[in-house]
Structure formats: structure tokens, C-alpha cells
Design goal:
Distance between the termini: 74 Å
Largest sheet: 9 strands, mixed
Mean pLDDT: 88
Shape: globular
Oligomer: single chain
Helix content: 40-55%
Structural class: alpha+beta
Number of helices: 23
């Protein structure tokens, strides 16, 4: 618990003890920090890695903030990638082969003016404290100061420096913007969606003034490119966070800006909230399902196409061309766009096929009737069939259609018990068959 680590308020900020894991990513970050310090430069681990460790999550990567200028970092390390040199950001390459790691190193800076709602008009290099004060949320404004050994190497243990109240906010389960919330969102409107992602991922309550500022600034999302929106939504719509993400998108008026046609069809995302909650519940229940090597695997992860299929169900286009166009608008990759359209189509087809067979008959454990219909077998053997059944089941539960719910569950059991070989029988005639009969390859 953070509260157990907090010691006292000192001139350099509220401090708390912390220990890094012993993995290669952490070790690479410590090596970079130690070398910067041996070169006479102030340096700390900063941001998301510190936040994640305090929240009990193993960081995927580590960032370093330093007083060293980019040219000084380049001279000190040699192997660097200039990813944002104009903003004082480079990536330092550590190790080779499988041990190769990249550590992002940023010079302490203050941003001056934001003309495009994303990039500062200018930056000036500054102190560690001022660098923290330009960041988005208090939980991201924490520095880790590792202990230094006599030989200049760094220990995995050290202290967290907190100038913005991030430790107290993490302990209280609160997401709070640093400084004046409206200004933080005016600087970069993507922070509106970052607030949703952090709050849903870490089960945080968004502080009152920050909430008001998000609603007041929601129109700023119109200035954000869909590439950035898509990436942020992909993180926010993970299985652990998707249901709460939909709630926050509706409550904070962000869906009105991102998907006005969806809100028109589903005011307040009332149906979307219940659908996503039902979908996530089913996926979690399937996570521990035993799967035979020759059977069909149930869906246990919430992919971006499946989450969008549930979120945007009320605004789904009726035509293939319309669905492709929506995929382009959302900046999905071609496979993601195809999967989104196929999930909707398969879900619709399965519901129609069940109606033709008779939902009540299927619900009464007579699912074998499905095997008499080639169209239903084709639907059920699709790689996306479980995605489609999960979506259809969430809608059936939403509409309280008990017979359809039972029918879908019966089909899910049938599919889970089937073997791929049964539904993909060996062809009677193959190329080898024709060759054995004297036909030459490539000759009609």
C-alpha cells in the first residue's frame, strides 16, 4: 500500500520507498540512468513505469528524464535513435541481440504554447520539478530516484519523488489532472481519452474538477486525428476495462463527439453499456475453458474488432461497402476492418439461421439440427464464429429473448464439442487424385 510507504513531506517533494523488478527492461533503464549520473547529469525514472509499479503492475517499458541535453545524451551513449529531437527525446539502445533494449530518454522541459492541440509551439529546458508540472495527471508525475552504490551503479531500490500529490491520489483511487485541468486538456485533447483509459484500467474515480474540465473540453476531440483516437481506444477497450470505458464515454460526453450517430441511436450509450458488460462477463467465464487440440477455441480476449462491434452495434452500416468505409474512418488496419464487418455479418446470419431452424428447438438441446444446414455449419466453423455468438448472446440477453439465449448457448456447446475434421471433411477429389488418373498439373 502506498500509504505504508509514505514518510514525510520534504523540500524536494513527498517521498516513498519503491523497488524495481529484476527484469531486463528495468536493468536497462537503471544502466542508462547510472551512466547519465556518472556523466554529471541529474536523471530519474519517470512517468508510467513508476505509476504501474505503485499500482502493482509490471511495466512494459521504462522512461528516463534527465537534465542532459539531447546532444549530450547522444555523445554519452553513441547508439541513440532520434525519435523527438525537437522536444528533447531520444531512445538509447542498450545491449545487443536478445538482450537489446531501447530506453526513452527525455530532457527536463517546459512547454510553451500549444497551437495545434497536440504539439508545443516551443520548449525550453528546465528543472525536474518544472518538467513534472507540465505532465497530464498526478499519477504520471512521479519520479523514481534509485540509490547509488559506491561504484556508481544503481540499486533496484530507491525513493519516489512526488511534487503533485500523485502518491495520495493513487492511495485514494483518484485520477486528477496536474494544475489547472482545462489547460491540460487544451494542450492536448487526447488527454480526454487518456483519462478514460487510466480511470477504467486502474479502477480510479475521476476527481470532480477534472471531470468538469473533461466535459467542458470534450469538443476538443474534434481536433485529434483518428489515428491517435484509434490507438487510445484500443488500450481503453481491453477486457479488464471495456465495460467501464463505455460508461465513461457516455457519462463524460465524449461519445457525443466521437460517435454522434451512435448516441443518436443509443442515447447515453444505455444499450452499449449493458451489451459490453454482458460480453465481457462471457469472455471472462470462458477464459478457463479447456480446449482440445482438435476443437474450436472459445474467445477469451477482447480484440479491438470485437469490442468495436459491441460498442458501435447501433450504428453499424447495413452494406459491406458501408462497413469498409467505417473501418477506414476509424483508421483500422485492413484485417481489423474485415474482422469488424465479419463479426457483424456472422452474428446477423446466426440469428437468422436460428430463426429458420426454430430457436425453441435448438434451445431444447436439439442443436444437432444445425448440422443439417450447410449455411449454419459454414457460420459455426468460421474463425470468428465465437466472436459472433458472443455478440449475438449479449444482444439476446439485452433484449431478454430467452429462447434465443438458450439457442445460442446450445450452439456454443455444439461448436465446442465438435472437431475441425468433422466440419472440414477430407475432399473426395484432390490434385493428387487427378494426377493419379493421368492429368498433368496446370492443364485444364
Amino acid at each position: 500500500r502506498v500509504a505504508d510507504m509514505v514518510s514525510e513531506l520534504q523540500d524536494q517533494g513527498l517521498r516513498a520507498r519503491l523497488e524495481l523488478p529484476s527484469d531486463r527492461n528495468a536493468q536497462a533503464a537503471l544502466e542508462v540512468t547510472a551512466r547519465l549520473r556518472r556523466g554529471g547529469h541529474e536523471a530519474y525514472l519517470v512517468g508510467g513505469c513508476v505509476r504501474d509499479l505503485l499500482l502493482g503492475v509490471c511495466p512494459k517499458d521504462y522512461d528516463v528524464a534527465t537534465a542532459a541535453r539531447p546532444d549530450e545524451v547522444s555523445k554519452l551513449f553513441g547508439r541513440v535513435i532520434e525519435v523527438g529531437i525537437s522536444f528533447g527525446v531520444v531512445r538509447v539502445v542498450v545491449g545487443r541481440g536478445e538482450a537489446r533494449r531501447e530506453v526513452e530518454v527525455a530532457t527536463f522541459r517546459a512547454d510553451e504554447g500549444y497551437q495545434d492541440g497536440r504539439h508545443p509551439s516551443a520548449v525550453r529546458y528546465t528543472s525536474a520539478r518544472e518538467d513534472v508540472l507540465r505532465r497530464d495527471f498526478t499519477l504520471n508525475g512521479l519520479l523514481f530516484d534509485p540509490e547509488t552504490n559506491a561504484d556508481g551503479t544503481l540499486e533496484r531500490t530507491g525513493q519516489v519523488i512526488d511534487w503533485v500529490g500523485g502518491l495520495a491520489d493513487i492511495e485514494a483511487g483518484v485520477l486528477r489532472a496536474i494544475g489547472v485541468p482545462v489547460l491540460r486538456f487544451e494542450e492536448d485533447a487526447l488527454r480526454l481519452l487518456r483519462a478514460v483509459r487510466f480511470a477504467s484500467r486502474f479502477d480510479l474515480r475521476i476527481e470532480k474538477q477534472t471531470t468538469a474540465a473533461i466535459k467542458r473540453s470534450s469538443s476538443g476531440l474534434q481536433r485529434v486525428s483518428w489515428e491517435r483516437v484509434r490507438n487510445e481506444l484500443a488500450g481503453a477497450l481491453s477486457l479488464s476495462a471495456a465495460a467501464e470505458t463505455v460508461v465513461l464515454l457516455g457519462d463524460l460526453d465524449l461519445a457525443d463527439v466521437l460517435f454522434p450517430e451512435l448516441v443518436a441511436a443509443d442515447p447515453g450509450l444505455a444499450r452499449g453499456r449493458r451489451r459490453m458488460a454482458s460480453l465481457c462477463e462471457r469472455l471472462r467465464a470462458q477464459a478457463d475453458s479447456a480446449v482440445r487440440d482438435d476443437g474450436f477455441e472459445p474467445t477469451t480476449e477482447l480484440s479491438l474488432p470485437l469490442s468495436l462491434a459491441a460498442l458501435l452495434f447501433e450504428m453499424r452500416p447495413s452494406t459491406l461497402a458501408g462497413r469498409k468505409e467505417l473501418g477506414r474512418r476509424l483508421k483500422l488496419s485492413n484485417p481489423e476492418s474485415r474482422q469488424l464487418g465479419e463479426i457483424w455479418s456472422l452474428s446477423e446470419n446466426l440469428v437468422k439461421q436460428i430463426a429458420d431452424v426454430g430457436a425453441q428447438a435448438l434451445a431444447e438441446q436439439q442443436a444437432e439440427q444445425a448440422l443439417r444446414r450447410p449455411d449454419m455449419v459454414r457460420s459455426l466453423r468460421s474463425a470468428l464464429a465465437d466472436h459472433a455468438m458472443s455478440l449475438a448472446l449479449a444482444n439476446a440477453l439485452l433484449d431478454e429473448d430467452d429462447s434465443l439465449v438458450l439457442a445460442l448457448r446450445s450452439l456454443a456447446v455444439l461448436r465446442a464439442g465438435a472437431t475441425r475434421a468433422l466440419w472440414w471433411p477430407a475432399p473426395w477429389v484432390t490434385g493428387e487424385t487427378l494426377t493419379s488418373l493421368g492429368h498433368l498439373p496446370g492443364v485444364g
